Amino acid sequence: MTPERRERLLSVLNKRQNDLTIVLENVFDPHNISAVMRTCDACGIQEIYVLSTRIAPHKKWGAKSSSSAAKWLTIHQFTNTEECVKQLRTRYDRILTTHLSSDAVDLYSIDFTGSMALVFGNEHSGVSEEIRTMADGNFIIPQQGIIQSLNISVACAVTLYEAYRQKKNAGHYAQRKLQEPMLGNLLTEWGFLGEDRVVD
Fold it and tell me: Is the pTM of this model over 0.85?
């Protein structure tokens, strides 16, 4: 690895956030998943959880939508909700789901400077009741139109960029948050990826 490439990779890794993750529950369309992955990469989210309890686990993502973003992320796949939530509880302080309910809070009232996992459900029925009962609360993206829903990749992008805004203002991207050995392992792993994968 050249010194220039190492510096480029480190500059990205130094902005990765270890206190925010996305959970995609039973999302059918792999292109939606890959679009979410691209947004995660853009916002410095390193880890993403893909939970498949009602559909077969995905074997690949839509490469056109992701621009190979999956190569740069740590993807955890689960087929059991309890096991997924159990692991999330060891890493994050809160779990919030996107669900329209009477107790749902507005996206813009959430303090994203804390540690949390955000759960997005599938394209048809949203987040399951099973995972909602295990979560700490629900949130909604305020809308003024007739159709009170957004495509999952759009909803995730809106949410992550609000988190990005808050975290940037709080200085989260100005300090290294990934710790060893994860930082070193990722640097080594990324170093083996093709030079054409890194966009300057």
Answer: yes
